[in-house]
Amino acid sequence: MIDVAPFDRCVCDRMVNAHDLCEGALTLSERGKKVRLSLRPGEQAKAIVIDGCVLQDNHPKCDGLFLFLGNHRAAALLVELKGTDIQHAFEQLKSVRECRREYANLIERLRSCGQGRVTEKAFVVSSRMVSKPEHERWENQVGIRVTAILHSEAASPIPDLRAYL
Fold this sequence. Notes:
Elements lengths: L26 E4 L2 E4 L7 E6 L14 E7 L2 E10 L3 H14 L1 H15 L3 E8 L5 H11 L5 E4 L14
Parallel strand pairs: 5-6, 6-7
Antiparallel strand pairs: 1-2, 3-4, 4-5
């Protein structure tokens, strides 16, 4: 079981979601941008609202986090749901990953679930299409590796982070 105390109130739930960002237990959604994590038998995960729940200040922060356990793997998948200002999304992801003790606490809790090493990845979900050179330029400018910039809009399929585990 993934223990996220004292942030239990920030976990998306299948039935009762107190957070606007939650659209079910493992789907995050904001202004038409959506992302999900699908599971296979024997795996477990939690979607956690970062912006407005785990972190409630005015400092830069990304929207959410998926914590995953399964098949002798553990992963933390940071997510920023963004319109078109993708460089700012990179900055928000970097701020949480490198500067926030709450994030470090969640990673340590995941590590203590018995999996040892935790793979950390970052994602931007946007309606904007981005070229590989743009993506690389932002990574170099901001100083964070972003695994993928996923395309999402109301009429498109919901990106699934399963492919990146």
